[in-house]
Every structure is written in structure tokens, then in C-alpha cells.
Amino acid sequence: MPETQEPSGPQEPSLDEQIAAYQREYGDLDPQVEKVVSALGRLNRRMNVAYGRQVAALGISNTEWEVLKTLVVSGAPYRLGPGELAKRLGLTPAAMTHRIDRMAADGLVTRDRDENNRVRVIVELTDEGRAKWLEAMRMASSFEEDLLQDLSPDERGSLGEILIRLLRRVEDAQPDAGGRLTDLD
Q: How far from the centroid of its chain's Cα atoms is residue 171's Cα?
């Protein structure tokens, strides 16, 4: 008989159990709304854990992955100033400096003075940083394809459009919520 591993720590209640408890304590709750919102929250947390494990296997952290991604998204030559990086990631300049220091020491980015403005610093993606980003993308793509395997192309398209509509509503209501907020730290 195969051994079954007992999960460590307390189990999270099922969505149905969670919603039932919410309804018990807050009678005005719309269970359909709560099911969607709770499922999105749990999916987001679990996906973040999965992505974190993938990048950890590559020897980088989620926070380093975010910097690599931001530099790649900026386009060739994959260069930004630390202030622009901090703004795009919703970080303080001090937090960004600390992150860049670690990444430069690991050979993922370089940090040099701007030739046209010696006061300005430029952070640039290295070949090693780009290779880590590409490998993380390969791993994420495989995970994401597996995640959505039960959805038809039409369902994927519809789900994507629905999620974008929800995202736009949140962005319109909370335009400053793109990064970390000081009031949430």
C-alpha cells in the first residue's frame, strides 16, 4: 500500500466552505461574486508560488525576475535608469538600489554611468540576465500551457477578455495600485 503524505500545517478551507462561513457572518454576501473573487485570489497565490519555485531553480528570486522582465519589456538595448525601474516596479529608490546591487554582483545586469549625462546611472541587462529570463519564460510557458490545457482556444480567448475587463475596472478605480503601496507595507 503506497504511503500518503499528510500535509503539514492547517488546511485551507475549500472555496465552498469559505463562502459558507462568509455568508454565515455576513448575510448580504453574493456567493457568485465571492466565488469568482476568492478563486482568482487563490489562483494568483498558487501561481506566484509555482513561478517562485521555477525562478528559484534558476538561482534567481521573484524580485530579480521582475527586474529582468522589466528590462526586456523596455525593448532593446534593455536599459533603464534605476529611478525608472523603481517606478515601473512600484518600489522605493532604496529598495531598487539594493536589488540592482545584488543583480550586478550576480552578473545579471550592469550598472554604468550614462555617457551623455555622467550623473545618470543606466542599468542594462547582460547576456546572462537575458539567458535567465529566457529560461524562466520557457518554464512559465510550459506551466501556463498545462494550466489552461482543459480550455478550448475560444474559452481561452473569452477568459482572457473577461479578466482584462476586470483588470481595467480595478485599474480605473485604483490607478496608483500598480506596484507596492506605502500604505500596504
A: 16
Element (H, E) at 32: helix 31-57
The owner of cell 550592469 is: 110
Give the whole-angstrom CA distance, residue 89 versus residue 65: 11
Residue with cell 521582475: 66
Is the Cβ–Cβ distance between 129 and 108 less than 8 Å? yes
Contact call for residues 96 and 85 (beta carbons, < 8 A): yes
How many angstroms separate the CA atoms of 170 and 179, rounded?
13
Does the pLDDT of residue 12 top 90, yes or no?
A: no
pTM of the entire predicted model? 0.77
Mind listing the pLDDT tens digit for each residue in 99-109? 999 999 999 99
Amino acid in position 6: E
Cell of residue 10, nine digits: 492547517
Helix (H, G, I), strand (E, B) or coil at 102: helix
Residue 7: the pLDDT is 55
Q: At 122, which helix (H) or strand (E)? A: strand 117-125
| Residues in a beta bridge with 111 | 123
| Residue range 75-91: mean pLDDT, rounded | 92
Preceding amide of 93 cis, omega within 30: no
55-58: long-range contacts, CB 8 A cutoff, minimum separation 24: 55/136, 57/139, 58/132, 58/135, 58/136, 58/139
